[in-house]
Amino acid sequence: MLRTASRSAFRRTLASHVKPQLTELSNGLRVATSTNDQAGAATVGIVFGSGSTAENPYNNGVSSIISNLVKSEGALPAAKLGAQISTSVSRESQSFLASFSGAAGLNKSLDLLQSQISIASGSGPDGAISGAIQKSIQQAEQFELNDHAGRVMEHLHATAFQNTPLALPVRGTVEALQDLEKIDIENFAKSHFRNSNAVIVGSGNISHEELVKAVESQLSLHSGEKPELKKKSSFLGSEVRLRDDTLPKAWIAIAAEGESVTSPNYHVAQVAAEVFGSFNAHEPSSKIQGIKLLDEIQEYHLVDTYDHFSHSYKDSGLWGFAAEISNIGQIDDLTHFTLKQWNRLTISVTEQEVARAKSLLKLKLGSTSLSNVSTANSLGANTLALGSSPDLAQVFEKIDAITVSDVKSWASSRLWDQDIAIAGTGQIEDLLDYMRLRNDMSMMRW
Amino acid sequence: MIGSRMRMLAAARQYHISAKDSASKVSTLAVRVHGGSRYATKDGVAHLLSRFNFHNTGNKSALRLVRESELLGGRFGSNVDREFITLKATFLKEDLPYYVSALGDVVYKTSFRPHELPESVLPAAKYDLAQVEANPIKISENLLYSATFRNDLGNAVLYDGVQKVTLDDIKAYADKVYTRDNIEISGQGVNEADLKRFVNDSLFASLPQGTSLAKEATPKTYTGETRLRSSEGDSVAAIAVPVAKADFATYEVLATYLSSALSDLSPLISKVKFDSFSNAGLFSLYVSGADATAVSNNIQKVVSSLKKSHDISVAKDATALRLALKNETEPFVQQVSLDKVKDFKLGKFSYAAVGDVSNLPYADQL
Amino acid sequence: MPQTFTSIAKMGDFILKTPALSKVIVPVAHQFVKFSGYRKMGLRFDDIIAEENDIVQKALKRIPEDESYARNFRMIRAHQSSLTHHLLPQAQWVKAEEDTPYILPYLLEAEAEAQEKQDLDNLELIKS
Question: Cross-referenced Gene3D superfamilies, in alphabetical order (chain A) (predicted)?
Fold first, then answer.
């Protein structure tokens, strides 16, 4: 039994928590900040609701090119100002952030971002654009060649959401990237980098009012309606295998359809994923975690590392696990035991497992807000998807309220006897066929 | 009773405790010990001690610690480098007392059961070593350290079995480095008064006084060249310069300058690193690639350019930001005054070549 | 309750602590050892503990190398005696003072670990 007496006595001394603030300007642009006045630096930036889902198979990778363009063109002016540009592309958002320290940094950083966005929208020099395209092609090739775990996750999206926007790889395909030209980039930027599709974010040591004032006077983006996706993304049980016996290991991922970001069960799915969590066979403390699955897979070293995830997007999500396996002769045992444990979420998950998962989820969510850049990114993505970014304290309250029966009823509707998507690469001879795996999503009796 | 009160007062006076409160929901607690590889009595003993952290203690088994910790929502780890063994725990804010006492247990009461060494510690240490040995840049960094400092800062960080380390060696080393004057405690997202109170209530207060092992005298440095044939991964050509304490600021700025767009050389360079220690630092620069001939050309270009004087003061602001961002996430804050930084010109340096060394230049060819 | 090494050791300690019990049981135990005859085959009591389970296997992995070597030697020697249907020459019989429990401490530790794991796997949460 764990003593918690000291905890309750201690609670009162905690520093008060600052909630994220949101202002909508008259031109439709939203400004969101999450302030931490103890921080020595601040980050401002623009997050657009574009990303790879806004692309199509013919311009797939254009967000990645723009990201590289801003990085290469913006690096020098940023360094001269003493600022640092970071860009990122995900499936449903794209961000351009500038970090700076000192009070004078805000206006200069916004100017910098403004000029970078106009470069991205087509006023960049031709040499820089072709350089950015080459860079994106190189990144896509390197990713295909070296990042097997990442590739399996891209394949998992490609098969699970086939023929819908979420299927497209974030970095783009080499084939599509090769054919892209300046005009494609301009068109994409013009139709997506608009007021209605953007959030200005600020995190760290920054004042909301000052940012709003500065944005009103300094920043202007294209106006116009927010572009709507032509197609909704939808999940389809299916599999894709890229067997390659020349690779040293096997990488696999299996997932059922998860929750969308707007779903009331968003956090329940995250808690369910945290019940099985992550495992690394090389780390002593990882081997003694309170995960019942570990007892079954450790004796025969069925897996090197695994990670359970709950990825959520606007229309749909993926809930499952990805694993790296050197014991390639027993992948069938690994998948069997893992999926049988997933069955337990519906029928016999315990109070203790859920409590553990809730605590670890809170830690995970709390840890991402430790750096300004990741705070700014999640602030932008949340504001775009949900209308406003929830306060972490509220999120924690929601997680605290989740019970074992919530997890059970979620699992019985979303996991028990549901279709799955499977992806694998490397030495996957032993990855069972679709029906055998699908059959493990339920049991005849228990 | 009076005795213990006295001891608590003494502890409060002598611990190096720093804390920074914040509104975040998660706190980090770090304990750093001057027990890194430069203080090691045998090669690798610091690494094994670091890997022994968070194993069974007199109060709590490793299993119980992990299970309790995950129910509270926390994680922990121990890391070793040339100067420090750093124990770090990240946890939900209200669990501070638990983690102070858990870390206190680890430094004061680790049991060092004989079976833990072969069953758990050695396999983990071996994996750490394998990770580094698969990375040519890391290998060349280690070569540069041993060429520049020979022993002390040049000691091997990770245990490789060249010198046999027994359980008794590890225990003796733990007794030597885990003393009150030799450790610093830092909290992020933690109230300083709370932290001090909890430290005094924990087993930290029972640690022997000891003396700080931190070295202040400037170490002797050398210039050397090492070459290592290897077919694993890219070829690397790297140079390193030992840095005296007075020049730390220049090299912090130089590292930013060479890795940012401010310098034309940055596309040629794979990695620039400046490590500062209590009494010296090492600036190192790596050029790597699959094609050794290209690496050879690039390192020659970089070195010949650096031998001319560069005005690096343009990178001061960027460096200030980099340090500010680093201080944001790292528990132990580092202050450097960049005001006087102006020019840089490369003088003598150590050199390491790893990979296809037949096609990589020698130091005198640079 | 199933018998474990922990419970046996506890019972033994209790008997030794209670003069009335130990006066009766200790001589019986000595007779038992004498009639079971393992010492005459050059074995110690800890050599004849059934080793086909996880607890004993774990303990066997953890005993010092020289103990492990000596144990293997005694086993091979006992097998040879058994094969030839001879007892060892009396000089080589294991004396009472040599028949010390060299695995038992490791067994107790392994059992305590397994017990702790089982307890932690089946924690009950008390809402506070």
Answer: Metalloenzyme, LuxS/M16 peptidase-like
